[in-house]
Specification:
Elements (H helix, E strand, L loop, with lengths): L4 E4 L9 H15 L4 H7 L5 H12 L5 H16 L10 H10 L3 E5 L4 H11 L7 E3 L12 H10 L6 E5 L2 H9 L3 E4 L8 H6 L2 E2 L3 H12 L2
Parallel strand pairs: 1-2, 1-4, 2-3, 4-5, 5-6
Amino acid sequence: MDFKAVVFDMDGIIFDSERLVIDCWKVVAEKYAIPDIEEACNECLGVNGVETKEKFLDRYGCDFPYDAYKAEMSKIYHDNYDGGRLPMKIGVVELLKYLKETGIKVALASSTRTEVVVQQLRDAGILEYFQVIVGGDMVTRSKPQPDIFLKACEELGVAPEESFAIEDSYNGIRAAASGHLRPLMVPDLMPPTDEMRSLSEAILETLLEVKGYLRNIQNP
């Protein structure tokens, strides 16, 4: 079955950022003696800022000063990785160039705020490859709901069934599958589970493998 578009997640797919966010949270957690911070962060992979806060408050209590701790974590993160210093994952540029050369439409659907998404893509020199960008603040319901992927497809002018979604998180794969896109999982922090294998069209190790997979579809 042919395809017309590819919708990328950002954190953990384009940028090796999820582990860096957790590292920054660990600094804050050590300072304030916050227990099990890595487990808390892993529960929030793929969801937007509103739901992340809810999950932290559910875990640590309604008096947990999430906003203050999050701001401190964010400052550490941006001080270290803004300005093009955020490491990209293997194969990002190669895959984006291939999609551009073959006329495949490209969107980004990230739970991160749109302003941050645009800035990070611009700093990395790859903003030009994306026709559509949908940030987590542009939809009401976060992944695992499909809203962000459906909005990306709508703005691209393609049917979800004609679109691949490249994701690393469980919530992202669930969102893509429930929106009837074709999910490709490229695992980052969390290994594929039986559920992920059942929901994904394929599980691939790198974006270079994704490029080969898509090329085989276009040139069987």
